[in-house]
Amino acid sequence: MTSSELRHDWSVEEIEGHLAASLSDLVFRAQGVHRVHFDPNRVQVSTLLSIKTGGCPEDCGYCSQSARHDTGLERERLLPLEEVVDAAREAKRAGATRFCMGAAWRNPTDTQLERVVAMVEAVSGLGLETCVTLGMLTRAQAERLRAAGLDYYNHNLDTSPEFYGQVVTSRSYQDRLATLEHVREAGIRVCSGGILGMGESRRDRASLLGQLANLPEHPESVPINLLVQIEGTPLFGTAELDPFELVRTIAVARILMPRSYVRLSAGRHGMSDEFQALCFLAGANSIFYGERLLTADNAATDADRRLFDRLGLGFETVEAEVRSQPGPCHKQP
Prior knowledge:
This protein is α/β, with parallel strands linked by helices. 39% of the residues lie in helices and 15% in strands.
């Protein structure tokens, strides 16, 4: 495969072979692919806000917001519109180009969705890209969000189909794939990735990447999260992942999905500057910016600016991002 070709027929064995390659060879190849499609010295920056925290009926083993886990998290109501808009304005002033809003729901009711629609319209009016993660969607709900001007919908696959049942039992893998299908058919760009360090094997990581890369269209945004262990959740105390496995996964995601933004997501709070630099070298070109990711700590904004200065990296603009992602949904107004 050349660096400009897109494939959707990867086998788990092929992907495992990439993950097992010499790290220097793997990063070298990923960096070459990255440079064909992106400016290697620009990083897309998003800010994530929890617009409705806690009380989720799902049993995801990593999640502090599940009503089934005793994590001490207070259940909160949906934030008022004005508070969300104020947070979006601050994110834009700090350099974010995309504002992401997350609600701890299994799936929104139509009434709840209309309140989120008002947020999407208001944030979009500030000149920011919009993204929401609300749980499962029906096709009609996805179409309603598209009509409101939503740019991205986040719905992670979390892990491989084979390992999934050890993490989540309250919704099926097919439920997740169905929501992605509804989002894509509505003309909304897809944000979907997974979580590493939950006790999965390298083959599970290969299978997850295969699920994403073999979708009919690659997700425009692929968040790669490192498990943030929360006391009170079933996955608290899981053995920590070898950091180089995260680097390998980012590099292979870049090779498999060359035109996608690969986001270094949750877990950055505990990463050294040197480790993050290696992730950027491996093909990561997006981060969450701001000191909170829903309920977990994130790297401080001042620390991110200092890191970017040290590495000679700059913030990408919305215009640059749109130009780098050709596809049918970008042709729509």
